[in-house]
Design goal:
Cyclic Phosphodiesterase, Chain: A, 3-stranded antiparallel beta sheet, 9 strands
Length: 247
């Protein structure tokens, strides 16, 4: 049996389910065409919390589309920069907001191109081509804001390992509490759950592709980061504040 090391000082129980989690995302400007596209497709506006009717997808029932977008809908339309975390004991939300604002103020805006792609069977908007500035932004956020992150419980670590991690991913999990950061980071704005090749996947792509093309014909201007908050375990993430870049 493989044995995994424990985090020094890590807890062994589950976090308080009433405690909030926080994340730093790249998210489109509220009200923009890209934001509206994401809210309509996923069926929820992550700023207002408003539920929306999802589009009709020939070949898929409304119930099946809702199932395929359920996870993405809960997190809100975004690309993860610093993955969700609980606040470390002794840190406050006000301090976190100040740190996020200071971090964003030190960044320079940049443009990327987006396109509909498949990532491990998930449909998502991804950079075309990849841009090192986004990878640097994510790496800096994970590193610089880590003092606010509570150490994960052993149960959380076990859940992360269920998908099967590489040696590098295990190292990242131990160091940063999440296996898909730094060298494993892939910018993506998730639009579906994993779906195997077949007629249902083809139907999803056929309905999604023209909608995605319409909002990715122009470059995406990355000039802010958004703080998302999950008020309690199982609740939807809500965008609570945006921090503009200072450059």
């Amino acid at each position: 049996m493989v044995e995994f090391p424990s985090f020094p000082g890590s807890g062994t129980g589950e976090p308080d389910p009433q405690a909030p989690r926080y994340a730093l995302y790249v998210a489109p400007e509220p009200g923009s065409a890209l934001a509206e596209f994401g809210a309509d497709w996923l069926g929820r506006d992550c700023v207002t919390g408003e539920t929306r009717a999802q589009p009709d997808v020939p070949g898929l029932s409304a119930e099946r589309l809702a199932e395929l977008t359920a996870s993405a809908r809960g997190y809100g339309f975004h690309a993860t920069i610093k993955p969700p975390f609980y606040l470390r004991e002794g840190r406050s939300e006000a301090e976190l907001l100040d740190a996020f604002a200071a971090f964003a103020k030190g960044r320079e805006p940049f443009e990327v191109r987006l396109g509909l792609r498949s990532l491990g069977g998930f449909l998502a908007l991804m950079m075309t081509p990849p841009d090192h500035r986004m990878s640097a932004l994510a790496a800096d956020a994970v590193r610089d804001l880590d003092p606010f992150r509570a150490l994960p419980s052993e149960a959380e670590l076990a859940r992360r390992r269920e998908s099967g991690l590489s040696a590098q991913q295990e190292t990242l999990l131990q160091q940063w509490g999440y296996p898909y950061v730094m060298g494993e980071f892939r910018f993506h704005m998730t639009l579906s759950a994993r779906l195997p090749e077949g007629a249902k996947r083809d139907a999803l792509v056929a309905a999604l592709a023209p909608r995605a093309d319409a909002v990715t014909s122009e470059p995406f201007w990355v000039d802010a980061l958004a703080l998302f908050k999950q008020p309690s375990k199982g609740a939807d993430f809500i965008q609570v504040e945006r921090f503009g870049f200072g450059g």
